[in-house]
Amino acid sequence: MSHSERTANTAGDARRTPSSGPLLASELTLLFRRRRTQALLLALAAIPVMIAVVVRVSSTVPPGRGPAFLDRITQNGLFVGVTALIVAVPLFLPLTIGVVAGDTIAGEAGHGTLRYLLVAPAGRVRLLLVKYVGAVAFCIAAPLAVALAGAGIGAALFPVGPVTLLSGDVVEPGEAFSRMLLIAAYQTVSLLGLSAIGLFLSTLTDVPVGAMAATIVLSVASQVLDQLPQLEWLHPWLFSHYWFGFADLLRQPIGWESFTSNAMLQGGYIALFGALAYGRFVSKDVLS
Amino acid sequence: MTSADRGPGLAIETRGLTKRFGHQVAVDSIDLAVPRGSVFGFLGPNGSGKTTTIRMMLGLAAATAGSVSVLGLDMPRRLDEVLPRVGALVEGPAFYPFLSGAANLHRFDAADRHAVPATRRARVAEALERVGLSHAARKKVRAYSLGMKQRLGIANALLADRELLVLDEPTNGLDPQGTREVRNLVRSLAADGATVFVSSHLLAEVEQICTHAAIMSAGRLVAQGPLPELRKTGSAQLRLLTPDAGAASGVLARFGMTPVVGHPDGQGAVITAVLPDSGLPEGGLPKGAGTAPSLEPIEPESIVAALVADGVRVRGFTVERGSLEDRFVALTGEGFDVAQ
């Protein structure tokens, strides 16, 4: 490495437009190639499989009991995915999101790799954004894992046919399948706020388990508060308030009102906790 | 410090740099000046504030007061321009244990927005080759020994052409073979024109590879400058065994020394004196590092000649140079203990 060579290299670098692409690609690869992430997705995919197998081996399902649509599974395998998505909403999905979002910054700090990313230099704002995009990618993958595994096992174990929607209209299996993907998308949106909360909590500590646990606890607390009638004024502001509001997606025509309210609420949480995470992370002393 | 070391030729310069954690002052108003092209040893006992100083240099921690400039630019304001030109090993290596050595380097290189993706594979391979890790490139870091992780950490600092390398305890955990390799590596980096800033608590290491050094103690900078100057201040001591104490003292006084006479066993006198300016050849120092002593040195042999000429019976004569270690202990007063 002579001096003139270095000068030439520097000039070459200056002509190139710096890009965030490689870091984002590296982040997504790291996230989805990691055994833990794969285990989380597998656990989520196991929910519909478990439901389908139990329903298949049991002789009768008493109508009206158990999770919604459970009694319809034997007639139509498409209901496996929908039932599993409903079952996953209160605990399983927030749990996995808590693990991924809580790990974002604290996990790097815990490994000590945060300081090497920052001196690379990754740039603090850029790293925070890339980490959030990674969490969002997982929010997309998690409900999708449930839905696709449900569709697969449902088609394998039960007959598939036209589906009667909540409005009484009957749609073809293809249409019903896309409705299920729509519910998965709804849940992705539902989890964006929680991801932002997890990202913020992750900037507060060097112990990833702490941030994960705190995120999961908050998701449970929000749902508990949502049950208390005394706090009715607070309910529309809780990030979990619309988590179950996807029934309108199963009507003809589709009702988007709940989807929109949910998206706006989650957007508010992203703005608030994104700003908090930014405020905390750009000024944070990285001592791990 | 010579006046030539000040000014634009500094790779790192801090002014009044201070870091407080609550009431604890970790770094106390230090003015560090690291000349470009130097191999700079940053010495101090554990807990003396070396790593905190390095964190502030690299923009990982904010200074409570004072300023840092690296490669002539303010940190952390110009961080995006500075850090791509700096390779760093900070407080030991840290990697993703579930990734291979090569995958870890790919990850850190991808984090650098200025790194050219097209040459990434080649640069990673070259860096691994340079620290002798090519054979373990595909192995998960989980299975690496501490020494291998340390090498990988150094490889990470060498992923691109760097003008400045900041290596915090680079030989930690390395076997003697590895230590020697790192020393050679540092020399070859310096020969290529890079400035190398090495923090260490191992004096021998610093003495062997550095042209300049600074000594930290309890958060304060107690000495800095070219190594020969630092060493010189820890002056050489003369020890003379003779039965003719009076005559010998007279001769030594002519050389400007203040002899101390002792009679340990009644057989003769042991006279000790501090050489006013040690003129011993500075063996083992890198060429061009030393500055010429300002005073005409007193050659030990000329002292002996004068003693003999005056009829002093010389039974023993030694001159012992103060090592950097003596200087270090004198300045820090605590040897290698952890500062409180």
Describe this structure in words.
- The complex is a heterodimer of chains A (288) and B (340).
- With 288 residues, chain A is mainly alpha-helical.
- Chain A has one domain.
- Helix content of chain A is 68%, strand content 1%.
- Chain A has helices spanning 3-15, 21-33, 35-57, 78-88, 92-111, 113-119, 124-157, 173-203, 208-225, 257-282, and strands spanning 163-164, 170-171.
- Chain A has a two-stranded antiparallel sheet with strand order 1-2.
- In chain A, helix 3 crosses helix 4.
- Chain A starts with a helix and ends in a 6-residue tail after the last helix.
- Mean pLDDT of chain A is 89; it is low at 1-15.
- Chain B is an alpha/beta fold and 340 residues long.
- Chain B contains eleven helices and 15 strands.
- In chain B, the strands form three sheets. Chain B has a six-stranded mixed β-sheet with strand order 7-8-9-4-10-11, with helices on both faces. In chain B, strands 1, 2, 3, 5 and 6 form a five-stranded antiparallel β-sheet that branches. Chain B has a four-stranded antiparallel β-sheet with strand order 13-14-12-15, with helices on one face.
- In chain B, strand 13 (260-262) and strand 14 (269-274) form a beta hairpin.
- Chain B is elongated.
- Chains A and B meet through helix 1, helix 2 and helix 6 of A and helix 3 of B.
